[in-house]
Each structure stands twice: as structure tokens, then as C-alpha cells.
Design brief:
The complex is a heterotrimer of chains A (343), B (166) and C (284).
Chain A: E1 2-6, H1 10-19, E2 23-30, E3 33-38, E4 66-75, E5 78-83, E6 91-96, H2 98-111, H3 118-125, E7 127-132, E8 158-162, E9 168-172, H4 175-183, E10 187-188, H5 198-205, H6 213-222, H7 240-244, E11 251-258, E12 261-268, H8 289-308, H9 318-322, H10 329-336
Helix pairs in contact in A: 6-8
Chain B: E1 16-21, H1 25-34, E2 43-48, H2 56-64, E3 69-74, H3 85-102, E4 110-114, H4 120-137, H5 141-150, E5 162-165
Parallel strand pairs in B: 1-2, 1-3, 3-4
Helix pairs in contact in B: 1-4
Chain C: H1 4-14, E1 20-25, E2 32-37, H2 40-43, E3 72-76, H3 78-89, E4 98-102, H4 117-120, E5 132-133, H5 153-156, H6 160-171, H7 179-183, H8 208-221, H9 231-235, H10 242-257
Parallel strand pairs in C: 1-3, 3-4, 4-5
Antiparallel strand pairs in C: 1-2
Classes of the chains: A alpha+beta (343), B alpha/beta (166), C alpha/beta (284).
Bound molecules: iron/sulfur cluster (4 copies).
Chain lengths: 343, 166, 284
Amino acid sequence: MKIFKITGTYKDLVETLLSLDYKVIAPVNRNKLTRFDFINSADEVLSPDEVLNTVRPAKEHLFPMTETVARFSYEGKKLRIGDVEVPEEKSVIIGLRPCDAAAFDAIDKIFSYVYQDKFYLTRRNNTTLISVACEHPDNACFCTSFGISPDSAKGSDILLKKSKDSSLFAFISTERGEDLARTINNIIPEEQPDPGRDLYEAAEKNMRAPLDLPKIKEALNTNFESEYWNEFSRCLGCGSCAYLCPTCHCFDIVDEVRYDKGIRKKNWDACQFPLFTLHASGHNPRDAQNKRYRQRLMHKFKYYHDRFDTHLCTGCGRCIRECPVNIDIYEAAAELCGCEANI
Amino acid sequence: MSQHKETIKHDFEPNIVAFVCNWCTYTGADLAGTSRLKYEPNVRIIRLPCTGRIDYNLLLKAFESGADGVLVSGCHPNDCHYNLGNFHARRRFTVFRQLLDFVGIDIRRIQFAWVSAAEGAKWAQLVTQVTNEVRELGPFTNYKRISELSFPYKELEPEPLEEVTA
Amino acid sequence: METLQNIAQGLLERGDVSMVIGYTPGTIPGKTKTIFARTPEAAQKLTFNENCVNNLSIYLTRQYGNIGEKPVALVVKACDARTVNVLIQENQLKREQVYLIAVPCNGVKDEHGVEQGKCKSCAQRVPKDYDALAGETPAPVEIDPTLRFKALEQFDAMSPDERWEFWMKEFEKCVKCYACRQACPLCYCERCITDKTTPRWIEPDTSTAANLSWHITRAFHLAGRCIGCGECERACHQNIPLGLLNRKMAKEVFDNFGYRAGESAEAKPVFADFRYDDKEEFIR
Ligand code: SF4
Ligand code: SF4
Ligand code: SF4
Ligand code: SF4
């Protein structure tokens, strides 16, 4: 980890990024929706004081909602299939929160597991992540449960953090981050001592108490058939939790055909939908909504951890904020193992 | 006779899809043909059992596939082969048109008519009128643009594709 | 005056109903969650306040399997009760299968304190039809009836192209999660048209064209049925003003056929009905 001081403001930094040879993605409020989007000027960027976590996470830039993965055409019985290239474009995402940056770390594992997903990985390798530490987490945030904190550098190439007297520092943890930092003249290339984490320690105190993850996993191991899951029959199966989650990564593949040509598209999908597990035979192993919610918890706190030693949640709180029936994953996990939900 | 008249060349020839019922309008259109009535050739007819069967999705698919105008036609009230189909259709289309208008589709591009089996002449005249009106409006670029973004048919050249035999 | 908890407790003690579906405080201030109270003790957890935005009638639809031999009691605001009427009109439910506990309502707010659009033009403090009333009968209020369609006026001044522009910018945001559908108590189809593949009417991708097809479908499938509870718009995290589309449909149905959805459980649904003299100026 290298620590450098930054001159000027956050906006100045964005300004500099725009002058470099990168596509810049930052939090904006476009048409009453906060999301990460390409920007052309620093003025449209929401500053870290204006937004905590955008409604939409940044994952759509590495794993788009809809993406063409193959194309084909046919003439009678002759079928021709073609590849789709992923453009090698350098981009930088600025303004992520530590939970969102850590989320990319988590999903890297699945996208490079047995199959190397070139669509995700090409973009991932060309993207530099600049995150911003959180001074004001809200009542849905619980990143501290996952070994992350409001000023954690996990997953970030560069983390922006303030000292007690509000000077801005860059914490650089990767080579990719260093490469970018060298080209930014707002970053003074002289290593600094750690300015401390006073602001963030204070922030942490107001957050939900960390979950007991081993205990939750233990409870998941033994409670597959528990009555407890009935509580979640109120889930609407709306999928908002999955679509807005920075770590959810399921997709569906469909072919769209017109006349003699077709394209194969990859679209987001979610385990909260009944169709997700519907077999061609008509049988559905997750035939009720509470079973689907159980799957959500199982995948986040057990299956993914079994396989990759990482939890599939970083505590960003989006699913808690946006669930229309107030299903709170923190509460759901805590109460499962008989712990009190310390919100 | 009219068929000897010179055809006028236009800069833009609209594609119009007509959804018609089997019993009245289709037969009416047939009559126009057998009576050798001349009308604009821009219309492609899709025959369905009844206007009550003409789902709004068919109209959307027509626009998605590049239609510049859509025509829906069936039996006059009280003449429906299934008695009530056209009354139900009339209610639905009353509201559906307003929905299209609301999202910004120029509703002059979507026309409704009653044409009976005996009204070959009305059909010929209707098609000519609708064609001229849509020609006046020009190509439906708004819809074509979003449709091409969704499925870039023209860009999907088969050249670099690898061949497999099915 | 009987309280909500007492009514519910009595029903459960006597075994009149299998459960009481109502509200209980949520995990974050300003949020409430659903409770399925099956015991008299659980009935004590019921609550009603200005944050009870959800339309709980969704839990009466078949997919939730809550309707059994015994009736189910449901806590309803006036708008929720209108949804129950539509469910009865459309044969999803019989009136005797549900016991309506009405709660007087002066308007509800989301967790950010924003009053819901539907409440601004609602003059109904209690449902027309219910089995028990939790609280006092409130004094009637007067509300300007033109408020109901006020939000649509901005569109009258726009050209078709401007409206197109407006909606394409909204639909572009849609992520096709179908949360709007899932949250709607009247989107109860066992298999939604969006999930059908042979043929596939609505492409599942998130291109604007595919999103437009979805939004036209959603609005039109609910035309004359939507009672304006606003759950779809509330569920849509992308802030797409779905309520405007619903309101437009409600206005057209009202202007053309004098029909308002959910007013009575006995009325024939507007599109299952017609009049010989329905207007037809638009037909050539
Ligand atoms: S599960 Fe919820 S809190 Fe966890 S990362 Fe996903 S959206 Fe955030
Ligand atoms: S948990 Fe909430 S957000 Fe997730 S599918 Fe269920 S109702 Fe929707
Ligand atoms: S309108 Fe909103 S809730 Fe409905 S599918 Fe689109 S993003 Fe989801
Ligand atoms: S469409 Fe929306 S407002 Fe209408 S009934 Fe359904 S959820 Fe309620």
C-alpha cells in the first residue's frame, strides 16, 4: 500500500481523469436515478457528499444487463456461427464505495472459475477502480460484517480517504492503480505516512454490529428444512435485491432471431424468479417463494463461501433499502442463527 | 381504364401491414381483387379469424419489424361472425390507441376500419387513402431506430462467421 | 371503538379466520413489513400507521396459496379494498373467503416521508365495504376530483415526438426485473406473457425497443383493472413513473366508458363488457 497526498478537490481529480485517455464512469443522477454512467464533464458527477450508494451499482459496466455473446445466420440447413469481440477500452470507475469495490473481488472468482468469461474479464482487466471512503454510512450499511470497513481498500486500485483535517489522500494498492496515479498530476508522487482513520472510526460506530458469519453458516448447514423460512413467504419475488446487488451475477441466455439471422444475448436473471429453476418437465425444485429466498441466503452465506472462501455479500445495503416488503438480509441472517439483529 | 394510367413514382413507399378478419374484410379485399379494382400496392395483408383476435402485440410486432403504418379492419358492428368480437375489439382499441398516443407514437400511423365482404370498393379506397396519409408522414424512424438498436439486422453480416452443418 | 389488535385477536381466538394479514414495524424507521398473524398472541404485533404503504391484497392471489377453507382476514385501506373488489370481479377470490378489517387512512408515506401520489387525490377515508372497522369512522373530506388526472396535463402540451422522447428516456432506465409486475396484486397471471417463449412477444433484453413492448403491455394489461395503488411505481427502484401510464389508462376508460376500476365487486370488468353504442369516431 502506498499513500500519496492529493492536491485540489475531488472534482479537480475527476477533471484530470477526463483529460486522460480513459473512459470515465462516475456516479450521476440522470433522470431521477442515481447510477454509474459515462461522464463528459466533472460538473455532472455526484460528489461523495451527495450520494452514499447509488441505486444501481457499478457492476453493469463490467457485466452489462444485456450483452450480445454470439451471432449466427442460416440458409436452409447451413448454419454459420460467429464470435463477438469485446473491445479493449481503458476505463476508470471513480466514486465507488468500499463495498462496491470489494464486490468485484468477490465476483472475479466465479467469472474466472472453470470457464474464463472473456466478456467480464476483458473489461475487468481494462478497468481501474477508484473508491471513496464513507464518512456517513446509513442505517442499511453493514460492510463491517465482511471484514470491510467504511475506509477499506479491498478490491480498489486506489482508495480516496480524508485525514482528520479533511486533506485528501490516495491509498494505492495495485499496479494498475500506480500506473494510473503516475499520470495524474493532482497526486503528489511522494509517499506519506498513514493519516489515520479518525473520521471512519467514528462512522463505524453508528453502523449495524458485525454479523457472526461462522454461526450463520453453521445454521445454514443444518436448517435447510426449517420452519424459519416460512417467514419469507411474504417475498414478492421481485428480484430487486438481486438486480441491485453488486455481487449477484446470474444471467440467462436467449437467442433472438429475425428472418435468417440471430444473436445470442446474455441478460441478467435472478434466483428470486419462479422461472429460474423451472425444468422443461414442468417440475420446479424451488416451487415456493420462501424456498427462493432461502436460496438467496444460502448462496450468499454458504455455497459461495464453501467454494470460494468469500461471502457473496459486502453489506452495501441496497437490497435492504429497496425491498418493497422490507426483507432485510441482515435481520434474516442474524435471526436464523438466533442472534439479535443489532440494527 | 384505370389500370392503364401511369404509376406515379414517389420518394418514399411506406410499408403498411393490414390485420383483417377472415369473414368480412378479407373477403372484401378479395372482392376488390376479383373486381380488378386498382389500389396502392403498399399493404401486406395478415388474415386473422376476427378483430377480437387481433392482439395489440401483433401491431407492435409490425412496427418492430419495420412497418410505417398499420391498418386493422373487420366486420361492421352487428355483422361479426362470432357475434361480439368486434364490439370487444372496439373497446380495446379505443383505449389502446390512446396509450400509443401517450407514449408518443403518432396515431395517424394506426388506422381502424369496418369493411364488409361486399365493400371491395371501400377497401380499395381505404388502402389508397391510408397509404397516401402514411406516405405523407414519412418513414417511422422513431420506432425503426430503437428496433435496429435492439436487433442490428443490417450490421449482422454473415461474412466472418464459421460454418457448421446442421 | 375496537382496535386493530383486538379485532384480530378475537378472530383468531374464535377461529373465524386462518390468519390475519397485516402490518408490523419494519427494520428501518419508516418501513413496515407484512405479518401473517396465525395466533392471538401474534395479533398483538399488528400495527397501522402512515407508513403502511403496501397493498396487502397481493397475498390473496393464488400464487401465495393463503386462501384455504377458512377465510383470511386482511387489513385494508380504501385503495386496497378496491383491489380486493377487482380480484372478486375477476373470479380470483370469493367475497366470503376474505374478512376485511378496514383501517381509516389519511394518506400514506414512504420511508422518505414522501406522500404517495395516489393519496393526493383520494377522498375515501374508509373502504365502501368491509367486515370490521379498526378505529372511528373519520369525517368525510372534500377533494377536487380533477386532481386525479392532473399529472397527465403536462402531456397535453407536448407533441408526439416530445412524448416519445420523454418515455424513451424513462424506458431506457428499465432493467427488466419485473418488480413492477411482481408487486402488483392484479398481475396475478400464473404465466406472464413476458415469460412465454413460443412465440416470444416481448424480448427479455433491456434494449429500449424491448422495454417499450414491456411497458405498453404492462399498462394495457392493467387498463380498466388497475385501481392505482401505486405499488408498481413504488417497487420500481429505477424511478420510472409507471403511475402516469396507469392513470392515463384509467382516464381513457373513465372518459369513454364511465367505468372506474374496483368501485364494486359486482360490476362487470370493463373489457369483458361493451355497449352497442360505444363511441367509434376513430373507425373509418
Ligand atoms: S446482498 Fe444486499 S447488502 Fe449484500 S451486497 Fe447484495 S445488495 Fe448489498
Ligand atoms: S427479498 Fe424483497 S427485493 Fe428480494 S425478491 Fe423478495 S420482495 Fe423482492
Ligand atoms: S419498470 Fe422498474 S420495476 Fe418494472 S421491470 Fe423495469 S426496472 Fe423493473
Ligand atoms: S398496476 Fe400498479 S397501481 Fe395498478 S393495481 Fe397494479 S400495482 Fe397497483
